[in-house]
From TrEMBL:
Assigned keywords, A-Z: DNA-binding, Transcription, Transcription regulation
Protein name: Substrate-binding domain-containing protein
Gene3D superfamilies named in the record: 3.40.50.2300, lambda repressor-like DNA-binding domains
Location of the HTH lacI-type domain: 2-56
UniProt source species: Sinorhizobium garamanticum
SUPFAM superfamilies, A to Z: lambda repressor-like DNA-binding domains (SSF47413), Periplasmic binding protein-like I (SSF53822)
Pfam families hit by this protein: LacI (PF00356), Peripla_BP_1 (PF00532)
Length: 328
């Protein structure tokens, strides 16, 4: 069994410094953190589980927090994370926030009880999340932009994606485009996509509509569009994700409107159900599985090889479905 004393000797530092680094508690320079983690990795050290017997090695695990395990986007990311970590003989612990910022800190605390090698977190808003106030092991933000304390992140450019899909609809001569979204307080991804929409509308010298915000949980099935359709008379609707786009199309049918003959619809994510629909959904496809793989690989590299923190931004792409038509 590798001891903390051996790590301290290998890293050329004190036992107290090793303890602070491995617990993530107390002031330690970035260089010393890298030296201690590299020494621990080279010696094959694994932190003991709080539930296991003293001195008994357990299978290392990584904690993952996502807003929802039922959303196909996060399910795809989890599949990528698990695939990469299984190859490294790591287990995966999963927690979900249900799009509730107030529950994130408790979910992360539960993951930390299992002494994970590190964490992969998709937060409602990384800038304001209380989950990041705790002393954390190596942490990768997934789908969130990096923040000062946690500069390692795997993302797509959601602002650019919102801008590009709006430009695509504008190119079909639409000028009254509505943005329907889950609450921005529950998803900074949705907010960035809306801000991209606003930028594209302003560049076209058109006034963007205020976003219609609804709950992410249980909001899609009971979506009511009658009031907003009467108020704004949009000819196209952009939904902040594909599941919501499906809900928008169902709500339009309840209003006696056809897609895309009466109203064009577009979404984000590129989930499989959009390609199985008739008409097929126009969407900005995201590399969710690849993002999960990249986040897991980056975490292992930082935790075990003491590599530098970095921000990886993957490409999105427009999927030309059949739900957007040109207006005459």
């Amino acid at each position: 069994m590798v001891t903390l004393q051996q790590i301290a000797f290998h890293a050329g530092c004190s036992l107290a410094t090793v303890s602070r680094v491995l617990k993530g508690d107390g002031p330690v320079s970035a260089e010393m953190v890298r030296r201690v983690r590299r020494a621990a990795a080279e010696l094959g050290y694994r932190p003991p589980s709080s539930a296991g017997a003293a001195g008994v090695r357990t299978r290392p695990v990584v904690g993952v927090l996502v807003p929802s395990v039922t959303n196909p986007v996060f399910a795809a990311s989890l599949a990528g994370i698990q695939h990469r970590l299984q190859a490294a003989k790591h287990g995966v612990l999963i927690a979900q926030s249900n799009y509730n910022p107030a529950s994130e800190a408790a979910a992360v605390a539960a993951l930390l009880e299992q002494r994970p090698t590190g964490l992969i977190l998709t937060l409602c808003n990384a800038e304001t999340s209380r989950a990041l106030s705790a002393a954390l092991p190596p942490t990768i933000l997934l789908n969130n932009r990096p923040v000062a304390r946690f500069p390692s992140a795997v993302t797509v450019d959601n602002h650019r994606a919102g801008y590009e899909i709006t430009r695509h609809i504008l190119a079909h001569r639409h000028s009254r485009i509505l943005f329907v979204s889950g609450y921005f307080t529950s998803s900074d991804r949705a907010r960035l996509r809306y801000e991209g929409y606003c930028a594209a509308m302003q560049d076209a010298r058109l006034a963007p509509f205020p976003a219609m915000e609804i709950p992410f949980v249980h909001g899609y099935e009971h979506l009511e569009l009658a009031g907003v359709m009467e108020r704004h008379r949009p000819t196209a609707i952009i939904a902040s994700n594909d599941l919501l786009a499906v809900g928008v199309m169902a709500a339009l049918r309840r209003e006696g409107l056809s897609v895309p003959s009466d109203v064009s619809v577009a979404g984000f994510d590129g989930i499989a159900i959009g390609r199985l629909m008739n008409p097929t959904l126009t969407t900005m496809a995201m590399p969710d599985t690849d993002m999960g793989v990249a986040a897991a690989a980056m975490l292992l590299d930082i935790a075990e090889n003491a590599s530098e923190c970095r921000h990886l931004c993957l490409d999105h792409r427009l999927y030309l479905g059949e739900t957007v038509r040109a207006v005459s």
